[in-house]
Amino acid sequence: MSDVIKDLSELRLSYQKGELHEAQAAQNPHAQFLDWFNLALEAKLHEPYAMYLATANAQGRPHVRTVLLRGAAEAGYDFYSNYDSQKGADLAENPYAELLFYWPELERQVRVSGKVEKIPEDESAAYYRKRPRDSQIAAHISTPQSGVIDSRETLQRRFQDLQDQVADKAVLAKPEFWGGFRLQPDYYEFWQGRPNRLHDRLRYEKADGVWTLQRLMP
Q1: Which CATH number fits the domain that encloses residue 116?
Q2: Which of 90, 94, 192, 199 has the most CB within a 10 Å radius?
Q3: Could you give the count of Cα atoms lying within 13 Å of 163 in the half-sphere of its Cβ?
Q4: pLDDT at residue 2, as a whole number
Q5: Has residue 12 been placed in a domain?
């Protein structure tokens, strides 16, 4: 394997697929998000509901990972995780986060920022019951999430052991350490790639319950 990285300075694309004007944008940023998100679904992109989640701990050290959007409403954007995970620990110390959706096939991305709160327990339990049984089992045995484990074989053995134990059970209860988070947005940015790096960037910010829309320099 070569240890010499290719020269990256000449690798670039010219974005040609769309444009975003203030007159075309929805007054409500969630409506604008749904417009773009539904187009991504219709285009049959690979997991358009995947999003990057950025958090930071009390010392300001950032962490970012990919999670799946599991609910989208004007009140907030939902994802699920182990509460004892790195993201759970960060959000317990610093309850603000940012989401990034990137759809390269459409040359678009969306940033959504705001405060994060845990989803009510009954909503988390209802979502957990909808998950496939093997995903339910994985939630039980993958703890503490991000913790060290000695081998893949140990993980597989834990999974198989619990799978055998609950094989004849109709219901597998949600573990207490697992559930949902909801990011309540106060900031959106919609980015549309344009030629010559003159990208369209529209920002929505919320103050006193009112959204304002502004264009940003690319």
Answers
A1: 2.30.110.10
A2: 90
A3: 11
A4: 65
A5: no
Q: Which pLDDT value is given to residue 156?
A: 96
3-state helix, strand, coil in the chain (%, to 5): 30, 35, 40
Bridge partners (DSSP) listed for residue 98: 54, 113
DSSP 173: P
Q: Look up residue 3 and give its two tokens.
A: 């240890």
Q: Is the bond into 144 cis (omega within 30 degrees of 0)?
A: yes
Give the chain's domain count. 1
Give the position of tokens 């990972």.
65
Q: Using an 8 Å Cβ cutoff, are 193 and 105 in contact?
A: no
- Find the helix or strand (DSSP H, E) in which 118 lies: strand 108-118
Q: What is the pTM of this model?
A: 0.93
Structure confidence at residue 37 as a pLDDT band (50, 70, 90): very high
Structure token digits, residue 132: 């496939």
What does the pLDDT read at residue 50?
98
Tens digits of residue pLDDT in 40-72: 999 999 999 999 999 999 999 999 999 999 999
User: Under a CB-based contact definition with an 8 Å cutoff, are residues 140 and 175 in contact?
Assistant: yes
Give the range of the structural domain holding residue 52, as residue numbers without chain letter.
Answer: 29-131+176-215
Per the structure block, which two tokens stand in for 51?
């999003």
CB neighbours (10 Å) of residue 183? 24
